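[job 4417] fold queue: 2 targets
>>> target A
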Amino acid sequence: MLALLLVVAVHDLVQKKHSILRNYPVLGHMRFLLEGIRPELQQYFIERNFDGRPFDRDTRSSIYQRAKGIKEEQPFGTERDLYAVGYEYLVHSTVPVDKMKEPPRVRIGGPACTKPYDMALLNVSAMSFGSLSANAIKALNGGAAKGGFAHDTGEGAISPYHRNGGDLVWEIGSGYFGARTKDGAFDEREFAEKAADDQVKMVSLKLSQGAKPGIGGVLPGAKVTAEIAKTRDVPQGQTVISPPYTASSPPRVSSCSSSATSVSWPGASPPASSSASARGSTSWPSARRWSRRTSPPTS
């Protein structure tokens, strides 16, 4: 044992990569050991139940329990500081109201729209096939169908796995995936055919890419299978890049309907909105009122 420690000590003294090991041979390894288990120490011994981000332990536990059908109710009481500045809460109405027959929705599309869409307040946000697996897309779209809400395709186009009954918001980004010619230009005919599908309730036009860390906006060629290539109208096995902006002026939908049937490419400036439909408004029932704590309570 001593011989092994001596060998480690000699190695630490002669190596030139880590100054800590040269200054503290053998003992310096404790620093790297503790650094390796730092996340576990933080999670199990230091972090409180409501400290984690983006989802704290209380939230994760509740999700796990409901997914397993173990526990669906939460008792009254909280570990949080209800009087902290910025705390958000709901205030109950002092007068009982009738239970809503249907969940509140937002009508998207004004009087000129031929097919307005009543959208739920909570929906599946944009996540593309290719970034997510086939099973994930199937699960999300199936959940949207059961819950009665919309599923944004992301800019990865409409895949066969989006066909599980959920309402679709077809997102067209700067790469025009799903409505794209072989040379990467916008294919008006393919767009018109897919946008007229009854499952496609809205078309969202993404005018440019936002800031993305790492290799965001890039689908490595190794992930571009035959199925993904067919869905996106891109070559198989080649890296797919979403350009930072559209190659030409963004498309202008000729109809205000929530399912557009034709599109044109003007040389003028882009439209004011990045969406192909106008947003309406709604009101919450009087039983709830949302508030944000902006200052400490007064006595």
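>>> target B
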Amino acid sequence: MKIIIKLLTFCLVSITGLVSAGTMAFASADSNVKISETSESSSSSSPSQQFDSTIRVGETYQANTQLGTDLVYESVTFIFDGVSTTSKSGKFVTNKPGILTVQYNYHYKSSSHIDTALGNLIIQILPENAGKTSALFRLYNPNSGEHFYTNSSIERDSLAKSGWKNEGIAEQAPVIDKSVPVYRVYNPNSGLHHFTIGLYEKNQLVSLGWRDEGIGWYSNSDPENGVSLYRVYNPNSGQHLYTTGSAERDQLASLGWRDEGIAWYGLK
């Protein structure tokens, strides 16, 4: 009985060490996983949920296979999205956001009986673009005078080949799900695009025949730490222009364009 108690105590201490070791317990020489050293909360879980580490969609999670001098690693059981899989290599490739549970299977050197580790590791899997930024490109059509905005380099290059002038990067936009969306609509009659964070404005234009082209990009949800994108309107041509330059805004206003305030916010 004393021997069994000692073995159980050692097992719990060993596993507790793995859980509390954070980055050190999971950073391997051949791992390309970015591990956070502090616990984070997921928007899809309860606010109090704590995580042992965090990775992004598309990254490979590599479990630590070195469990100590008295424990022999057998495999890892991954539980994700209701499905349980066992891996000898300890690798798990993520394909969508969610919560990954990692369970170790091992045995003591003095025994061939395989045990399952108590105290599973909980890994947060974030969207691929979480916390990243996206460049918003600005193009100009010298024939129609229209300005166009896109965060797609493919669309930018396609328009440039068609004669549009690439005017560079208008701003850096956040690429995170909880940001304020900037909607993109298209008028098939005039060929103009319109961009707005106003859901009501977007729906109103769609009801008038504009095509809803979905979310173009996102606005910074923290205006105090953002860059203002000003919106001006030409009443003669019906065109809108969006710019971070107050001088450009004021110059156009002096030429008869209407200053319609701040359209959305970019990142500093």
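[job 4417] complete. Note on B: Confidence is low (pLDDT under 50) at residues 1-48.
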